[in-house]
Each structure stands twice: as structure tokens, then as C-alpha cells.
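Let us walk through a complete example step by step. Step one is to write down the protein sequence. Step two is to encode the small molecule, zinc ion, as a SMILES string so that its atoms and bonds are unambiguous. Step three, shown after the inputs, is the structure prediction itself.
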Amino acid sequence: MQAFFSQQVVMPGGIRRAAVLVEGGQIQSVVPPDSVPLGVEAHDFGEAAILPGLVDSHVHINDPGRADWEGFETATRAAAAGGYTLLVDMPLNCQPATCSVAALELKRAAAQGRCRVDWAAWGGVVHDNQNDIVALAAAGVVGFKCFLVHPGIDSFTMVSEQQLRAALPHVARTGLPLLVHAELSGPIDKFSETLGHADWRRYATYLQSRPDEAELCAIRLLLSLCRQYKFRLHIVHLSTSQALRELSTVRSEGLPVSVETCPHYLHFASEAIADGATLQKCAPPIRSRENREQLWQGLSDGIIDLIATDHSPCRPEMKRLDEGNFKTAWGGISSLSLALPVIWTEASNRGFSLLDIVHWMAEGPARLAGCHRRKGRIAAGYDADLVVFDPDSEFLLGKERLHYQHPVSPYLGEKLRGIVKATYLRGKPVFVEGEFPGMAIGREFRLN
Ligand SMILES: [Zn+2]
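Step three: the predicted structure of the complex.
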């Protein structure tokens, strides 16, 4: 048996001085430090906090097919360094996209023996795979993802309203959530037409091309479909705060809707994005400072359930840093190794606690992915996925802390608060003080 001691063990009921007892990779119990049986293997982390391993429900690992963008080894290494012990991989940007059981099996083969943390798969819903949905669920995906707008890549198709309506009865039958990229092309095309000769080096041009309205219209459509088809709807990467009021109303109605936002929307603000700074391009876009504060309010009010990274890497040249063109640059921001300190820096400045962090970054995503009885909590019977986190130390972010394949980041050079000292997966260390000990012991979490 192992015992992990800390002055601050972050559990559902509060933050306590305690020892977490672990046997066979599972948490046996959490006890006062003086009740630990003799002869256990003791790890005393003193003042550092022990958090449950974080769960990231929105990651693009891009493997197989685009392992030159990221890959299972590098993504899960960055995850371990960032305090994550389970990643849920998006069905696109890998090739083939995860839209059939055969494609899912290829992804499983690619992941075999290469993961430092656990992973699970979202299945894709595209224009023509309605008949694959139930089979994907039976094969073990934890839910589905679709786009209402072009996803920035041609190997994964968006769905029209009609195609979505054809898919929804199948999705509802599985009982699994459907994650939706909620922007509609109508408002985007309308605004983009007026920007024909605009300067695409300017961030303001990009922001104008993807207005709040595109998100709002998509969310309204989705809410009405949710009411009609009674499926579990999850809005990924909410960027506009203008949708919060309607989301709050439908949630009090009891509609099965959940919402996520991402570190970049909670940290950056459009006013401070320099022209040509395409490292900050993502879709939907980073909006104003005022909008960012409203998103924090949405988290505080419980309208936004969780924070996921939307870790979306590419080959560095695709960011077009030389020309700084927001039209042609790849949209996506990588943050697997950084999300915890980024969010802790922002959250602690606003008076939130580590309990809130665990709620948003472990319990919430675990519930979405259906692994909330095994992951996301420090409690008896859960996997012994533990993060040792020093919440008080600050550091200047350099490339050596990124750990994913291409060390580019809009966060480089920032001073952040909170350092991940170690990460344990089922009781075994997978990250300790900058090193990755042991074998790649991560495995797939399946619902079936
Ligand atoms: Zn994404």
C-alpha cells in the first residue's frame, strides 16, 4: 500500500490535511495523517496540494495520419506535465477521421503502448455517417462531435441542419453526449463579404469575420433541436458571453445542456492581441476583455460547466508567423501542459479556490465523458490519479515546459502561478519534476 500525504488534499467535501491510501492503483480511502497503517510506502508532499488528475475533454491528438502535428507520445507527455491523467481525443485532424468503427480501431492501434496518461475517443458525426453512430457507441466511444461550420480541414465534413436532424435520433438512442462546434456559416459569410479588402494582418479583421452572432444563432438552433430530439447537448469552446443568459434559462428548464470554455478565452483579450499575432488565432475567436470577465461570471454562476483546453496543434509553419495573416493561418492553440497554471493564475486572482479548479477541470469533464465514477475525484474506489501542485510558486514560461511536439505558444514569456510537481496515474509516477519516469502505461477508457 502507498500513502500520499499533504496539508491540502482537494476532495469533493473540501480541502483537508490528509493521507490518500492507494492499493492496486486505486484509492482505498482518505484518512487523517496519524491513522495511516504502519509499513506503507509513504510520499509526503508537505505544503503542496494534492488534486485529482485532471480530465481534458477536448484534445486534438491528430494521430494516426497527422502525427507530424502532434501524436499520442507527445500529447500524453504534455498532459502528464500539465496534471492531466485522461484526455478525450477529438475525431478530426487524425486520418482517417473517427467516423466509423474501422477508423476507431486504427486509432486504437496507433495509441497502443504510446500513452503516458489514459485516453478516450469521441466519435465523429459528419454529413453521411448516421448509420455508424450506434455502432461507434457500441464500440466504446464516450460521445460524439460535429461541426455546424467548416472545421478548417477538408477530411471532416460539417453537418447542415437537415443532416444533423438525420443524425440526432441515432445520437439520442445512444444516450451519449453530442459535442457541437457552435458557429453558423451564415453570419460568418455575411460579415466576411464586407471584409474583402480588409487588412488580414489585423486581429480586428479576424474578430469581425467571426461575430458573436454566429455563435448565438448556432446555439439557438441547437437548443431548439435539443428540446425536440432530447439528446445530451454539449457546447464546446463557448467564446461569446452573449449566449449565457439563454443558456441559463434553458438549464433551469432542465434541458440536458452542458457548456465548456477554454483557457485562451479566460486569459487573453482581443484588445491586447497584436497585429500579425496568429499564435492567438482560434475559432471561435478570442473576444474582448469585458467578454472574458462575463465568461468568468458564467463559470462562477455554474452556467459554464467546465474548462477544456481545445489543444489544437499544427506544424509551426501553418501559423504563418512570417506573414501574420489571420485569414490563412491555422486556427488552434496548444495548452495541455499549461492550462492548470494559466487557469490557476486567473482564478486565484479572482478569488476562486482549488475546489473550483477541480470542479471545472476534473469533475466536470469526467462527467461529460462518462468516466465520473472512476476519474476526476479523490475518493475511495476512484483511480489513484493524483497531481502534486504547488499553488504558490510562480514561474516564467519558457519552451522547456511545453513538452508537446512543436514548442510554440502564445503564452511564452508570461509569468504564471502554480507548478505541477508530479503526476501519478493509477498510483504510478508519470511525471516528476520535469522528468517522465517509467513506461507509457496509459490506456483507453471505454464505456463498453
Ligand atoms: Zn477543437
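Step four is interpretation. Residues 58, 60, 90, 310, 312 surround zinc ion (CB under 6 Å).
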